Fold this protein.
Amino acid sequence: MTSKQITFTTVHNSKIEKMTGCDIGYHNSVIDPVNRTGCVGKRGINKLYTFDMVLNLAFEHPDKPNIIIRGGKDAKWYMKKISPEKINEGIQKQKWRDTSRYQMYIITW
C-alpha cells in the first residue's frame, strides 16, 4: 500500500489523498449516487466515468461520501462514507483480499 497526498484547490475546495493497493469496507458500505446516476449493475459507477465526474457525484450527494474507490473485477467506481477516525482500521480489515489493483481517494470536504 502506498500513499500520495494530492490537494485540489479548484475542485470543491477539497483535499484528496490518493492511496494505491487498498480498499475499505465491503458490499454494504457502498453509497449509490443521487438517482443512481452513472450506476451500472447492482453496485458501482460506470468505469468510463472520470475521477472528476465521480467527485462531482460525491459532492452532490447529501451524505457527502468521503471515500472514492476504483477497483473490483470490472474496475468500476464506488463511493463510501467512513468516519475519518476509522479509515486506517477499515483498511486493515481488508488485508485478506487482493486489492493490489485498487485506487482509493480519501476526501476531506
In short: The longest helix spans residues 51-60. The radius of gyration is 13 Å. The mean pLDDT is 88.
